[in-house]
Structures
1.
Amino acid sequence: MPLAIIPRPVSCIARDDPFVLAEETAITCSPGAEGAGEALRAVLGPPTGLRLPVRGPSEASRIALSVDPSEERLGEEGYRLSVNGADLQLRAAGRLGLLRGVQTIRQLLPAEALGGGPVPGPLSLPGVEIADWPRFAWRGAHLDVARHFLPLPFLLRFLDLLALHKLNVFHLHLTDDQGWRLEVRKYPKLTEIGAWRRESMTGHPWEGRFDGKPHGGFYTQDELREVVDHASRLGITVVPEIELPGHSQAAIASYPELGNRPDAPLEVATGWGGGADVLNVEDATVEFFRDVLAEVLDIFPGPFVHVGGDECPKGPWRQSARAQAKRRALGLADEDQLQSWFIAQMGSFLSGAGRRLVGWDEILEGGLPPGAVVMSWRGERGGIAAARAGHDVVMAPEGRTYFDWAQSADPREPVAIGRPGERVTSLEDVYAYDPVPDELAPAEAAHVLGTQFQLWTEYMADPGHVEYMAFPRACALAEVAWSPPEGRDLPDFISRLDAHLRRLDSLGVRYRPLGGPAGG
Ligand code: ACM
């Protein structure tokens, strides 16, 4: 079997002698390698039916996982894998590197071994010497569960699929105009009211069609902790996003005092496109969202918290005498600065708690809180400006990383954002993307933490459709984010992808066929 590893390892040399799994094979782990050992047993056990006991390092064994400080030069996620007729050795400086190596081992198996059931044995792994580490520290996937609520088991499965591709950041877009999906104990109406909308737009906004069916759902805090735990076992960081001050109509529908027109109540938005109001700039509203973030911090232990900041409608502030009085009292020149003030309130709360604020590139417009990370979505301009100003950046430009765009101009593609043929991000477009713009000097480029794809779900009502839009473009993005740019080769990628799709078949992933929407 030719090796078809995605993302492509830094260095990979095939050997002639395969490693055959046998009845007596055990997995030995040095201290710190036990979690990866259990992960490897979960990979190798079901297809072989072998016991594969996980043991301490003193026992003789043919599979050895070790945490080895001398591998520190491979970085936090790097690993070294040696497979030959005698044994299989995986070494890394720490747990994360071992977990990435386990995913490589998974891809050395025959594709049918990923299916969860036994395969006719004995199972063997091709001989290989691999040294591997990522290009970027942030290799992410964004998932919007606000526009369409997606069930908890799907989130867990999606995390498994991210891990298979060595993606390590799960950006969970939890709130928007059309739904609030996170239980907040202090403010129960956010989910009693905000998690439910009367109906949903179907088709494109210009068609003005609605389905007449209530839609909604939310995750309890315990369920979100389960997501965090599962992600952690896979070496994935979860970045929760609470959108403010725009895209917050579901919160305003739940607590009208958060908006600018408490006398004119809003419902949770049913159509796509911007909401009708924005959070007001009262101290009580800032306090409300500090309370919300306090609960968010309790659930999500990771270093980053995303507060949105994009597409903030500023008209309601212009028209509100109270917002204007506040702006003047704060000595702010305009509504852009008022938005920055709001974001800065959240930024100081988060930095006081030892976390870093992440926001879409609009947060640059009226000045940025120190330490903030800019997620550049309106092309790369925002990311370039932020990197030049010394801020860390995640590149997420629409034209290359928005997977709500259609995968081709074929009119048989399922409904996506934009008119047919108007917004297309093909697999090849994603594969050709480079997250470091040429115009950045090396010191500025060092601020590019990485890249991620976005799955906005206005036009994805269920897990199957999400998978169709995510794959195989996610495979390309993973390679962009992990593999060295030298040696990027589209035909080689496509031929590895052909083999990789057999793995996705075994996993039941409902990806878009390479031949097009009709599978031809
Ligand atoms: C965005 O797509 N509004 C971040």
2.
Amino acid sequence: MLNHLNCSSLNLDLSTPQVMGILNTTPDSFSDGGSYTQLESALAQVERMIVDGASIIDIGGESTRPGAEDVSEEDELARVIPVLIAIKQRFDVLVSIDTSKAAVMNAAITAGADMINDVAALQNQGCLAAVAQSDVPVCLMHMQGLPRTMQNNPSYDHVINDIVAFFQQRIEACISAGIARERIILDPGFGFGKTLEQNFHLLANLSKFSQLKLPLLIGISRKSMIGNLLNRDVKQRLAGSLSAAIIAAQQGANIIRVHDVEATVDALTVLQAVTDNQ
Ligand code: 8Y7
């Protein structure tokens, strides 16, 4: 299965699962262009994640949590671009930019971003063109509805088949726009317009996405599907998140997007030792 994997534009070996560390850019933290202490604290967080074993850092300037308010293009640029530039100056790590706006994609690619992570799968105005003009890989995430309302009664004919069909349609759109298949990473979008049962059904059936023969990225870290199942606050979801990460990796997930890099790398190392000694 892994032999068919090809994301040659991502300069990263995906033969074992890799960890993507989430950089928290708290609302307004860089909206003044990035104060020194805020930037330094972000860089310290990045350094910690690199030491802990993250191979990609994901920076987002727009909250995509259910019910979140929209962020203006200007604010998003001010939150993301200074920290992106500072990371690329100081560290040798791949940087992914979590955005759904073409202007932010263009600015990020110019500033040295290594990957675009779009929860809207390049469906917004200008996004296909922004990525097509570059040579960076892109993560196409599935979402039903929009962040503000997506958790209001999500419904599917068949969750897995509907998401596979969505991926096929977005892959075609990318290829038509000039984005080679080798640049595409897929993500079923845990928590983005899915009930608790649908999220766990997805986790149980992740291996079905291998039919598309593209790298799979998954993000479950600290999400409501863990919190609601276990009745845990966001800070108490580590054990649940690690369990989910391992279940995903066992089914072929190639990139695991997490807050807790050190613990996730440990868990994946245990899984790898099992795989290596079968
Ligand atoms: C995901 C994501 C978020 C995810 C990808 C959170 C930006 C919500 N979740 N990107 N972004 N996949 N590719 O709780 O699951 O982290 S934001």
3.
Amino acid sequence: MQIYKVGGAVRDRLLGRAVSDIDWLVVGATVEEMQAKGFRPVGADFPVFLHPQTGEEYALARTERKSGRGYGGFTFHASPEVTLEEDLIRRDLTINAMAEDDQGNVLDPYHGQEDLEHRLLRHVSPAFAEDPLRVLRVARFAARYAPLGFQVADDTLELMRQIAASGELQALTAERSWKEIERALMEEQPQVFIQVLNDCSALQELMPELHCDADSLAALVQAAKHRQPLHVRWACLLDRVQPAAIKALNQRFKAPRECQELAVLTGEFSGRADAGMALEPSGLLEMLQKFDVYRRPQRFEDFIVTCEMRALGRGEQTYPQAEYLRGAAATARAVNVKPLVDAGLAGQALGEALKNERLKAIEAYQRR
Ligand code: ATP
Ligand code: MG
């Protein structure tokens, strides 16, 4: 049997980038041989194993054929006769379809090195169209390698356009799509992900609620520039989307709770945050209550940062509202409930009294 390094590890080494995880390909071996060497099978019907010591993934060379709609609709064929070239041709991009042997020789039947040099994301074969997820993957790689000057090859973009037009993107599961969206958002230029999806008309299939102009993407650009976490980036992406559409996007991709909440709250309250010092104390307190700044202080902080990214995206140099809102939250939190309890208040009356004390504190804070 021969063992090769494949995929991202080869690509990123040639690009001089840090290699995160290594995928291995095994040619000329049977499942039984792998098990005899102590490799542990990963899934029942998938010819992938974990190395007994390193835990890295080793896949048997395989061919794939599409047999139906969606991701379930694939048949795999793994056997010792499947060659390296046959395995590599089923991969998405030429720069992902290179292998490296144990001497460090690069095996590159589909000219991935040439495309690396020309900074091109190019599909390996027409079989690319068999898995619609590849549209999102290419857009994600475009976002990741945009700082290096990579672009999607014209004929690949055309193929992506055909996939989008076929309606097949609708067959993707929320989980598979979200995984790509999440990784794309965490790249250095996540806006490129949206732009590439828009260029091939996949955006209107996947996220028709979004617009792809510079203004709509500006908050996300700032969030990436300031290395904000995923939920802030998601909320920034949905910056100019209507509340109902925010909910629809959250649900379509089953976004994590933290992302969903921040996007919805930002949609509802960013206008009040922007009003800052001009906001009525009662409106300010209502917002703080809605955020539950008493038990969820971090969530309000994430919201402030999101609003700040939006403001920078609009071309504002600073966002003085941020400090003002932080101070207001601290003021409301500092109101002590004990004197009210000691005065014999309980239940609804206590709640009302506490709210009243907080309102007075915020009024004083605003006048200060
Ligand atoms: P990353 O740095 O994002 O992990 P990667 O290239 O290693 O990039 P993986 O998702 O880890 O990406 O997949 C490993 C390899 O498997 C890819 O390089 C590619 O050759 C192949 N591959 C993965 N998913 C697909 C797919 N949906 N269609 C075709 N080939 C794929
Ligand atoms: Mg990988």
4.
Amino acid sequence: MRIRTFDEYQTAYQKSVDDPEEFWAEIAQNFQWRKPWTKTLQWNFTEPSVKWFIGGKLNITENCLDRHLAERGDQPAIIWEPNDPNEAGVTLTYRMLFDQVCRFANVLKRNGVVKGDRVCIYLPMVPELAIAVLACARIGAVHSVVFGGFSAQSIADRINDAQCKVVVTADGAYRGNKEIPLKSTVDDALIGCPSVQKVIVMTRTRTPVSMLKGRDVWWEQEVKQVTADCPAEEMDAEDMLFILYTSGSTGKPKGVVHTCGGYMVYAAYTFQNVFQYEPGQIHFCTADIGWITGHSYIVYGPLACGATSIIFEGVPTYPDYGRFWDIVDKYKVNILYTAPTAIRSLMGFGLEKVDNHDLSSLDVLGSVGEPINEEAWHWYDDHIGKNRCPIVDTWWQTETGGILISPIAGITKTKPTYATLPLPGVQPILVDENGKEIEGNGVSGNLCMKFPWPGILRTTYGDHERCRQTYFATYPGLYFTGDGCLRDEDGYYRITGRVDDVLNVSGHRIGTAEVENAINMHTGVVESAVVGYPHDIKGQGIYAYVITEGDAGGHDAELTKRDILATVSRVIGPIAKPDKIQFVSGLPKTRSGKIMRRILRKIAEGDTSNLGDTTTLLDPAVVDEIKAGAL
Ligand code: 7RM
């Protein structure tokens, strides 16, 4: 399963194209299956229907835990670094993690959870988050982790969409110098969530919380009532493992569904190969487990490979902007996997807090979540990797389950800002607007995939038609990523960003339609249009054009803006707050009523010299007004 040279990469790649079933069957042999599969792959991209390792039976936690006990039961599986560096951390060996997962799995059972039930997890970055995730997987319950930065309304939407039976949360969370109430947010959410029968609450901040009799129970008390004996549920390879909500260009976030067998094989294979993980290495992925990066490269991928994975509760700038380097130095981190936005924000503080740490343990640096600009790439390379650590710029999505296009550390020659080459099993294709393949090198187009890999999403929860429409209908026969892409003279891929109405703000994926809906819920707002604009640190910032009833540009415009931000925070969460709000009296629309976002994007970018063709506009005068008032 391990690629060691560029020749081996090329051989593996060729084989994965010539005989994908045989290629993935060999890799899947490296895992523990209760029963072997009878057919490796069945698929079509029209329904779509993709099934891997058909008939195979397994439990992913037997692969992430049980399997390692004999050989590395006493090796750390998880190292937890708290928000406050003066608080003691926690190290869980594989045996300890196994024990705690089994116990919490029994707690879930005690509270009525059975195979197939959905469990919503809303926790800070504490070991219990990984424990809760794995406990669900152990008993065949489907986890739906919701990032701690989402609002009560967003939690409620996700709980209702998946009809979750149980919620696992904490009293509160520490993030930098802030204390964030979690349970009270869950309480607000649950007013509109009739499917929820039980709430399991762990204590973290010990802030006072309301505990409803018959519904709310304490994590710590529950685990005392159970044994650590919990046999793993036998799962079909295509049984659902988890749902993870992600934003698209229209409507509410979709519940991306991943299944047990293919996801496991893909997360582990890509972890091992992209980062060239060696036994005993310490892996530090700075993402939150509330995003796919945390699912695949903090929890499942590393644990399936028997690695030691760091869970960091805090933020890169607390108590100071040297926190990442503290952690690298303290635990002798070998693999560091972070986002360009973090690199860009730390770059701005200079080298003082970098150079007073020993970073010599680092072997591999990873980047994920958004395009990495040349300057950040070089800063990472020069000052963190000291020009001796390969940088892997890993391109992938919630829907892909794992990394699709990336260098293999130390093996693929890197090129700043390029995700370079597809991993074995991945068959990218660039197409033009009409879906016609763009062949050859030195070209760009819309990035699609023409063949399934084991980690591809299977459906969007409760709405398969939406899955088909979103990913498989734009270009029949292809999976459409929503990203634009350039293929250079060497056949190297560079992702240029979304071509749809999805924003990437600090590596967080946010739909413009979602933000518009939230703004439109604000009193007095008639209509709004949201676009992205280049932001030095966040990658993209959110620019909102808002029409209000009456005169919003009057003396209380600033106050109204702050109120709108409060509404967006309440409806979606603080991560979706616009950076700029411009009040306008109209929006540039075509005669058929479509907002011309191209024009709004140009103005938000500060480039008003050439707005392109505006002849189809209903009222061209509105553009001059918007230009004049641009922020
Ligand atoms: C892993 C993750 C997916 C979107 C994707 C891209 C962008 C992710 C890179 C990247 C350029 C990268 N999942 N993206 N990685 N763009 N280079 N290395 O982020 O579902 O939250 O977002 O993120 O636009 O479509 S995600």
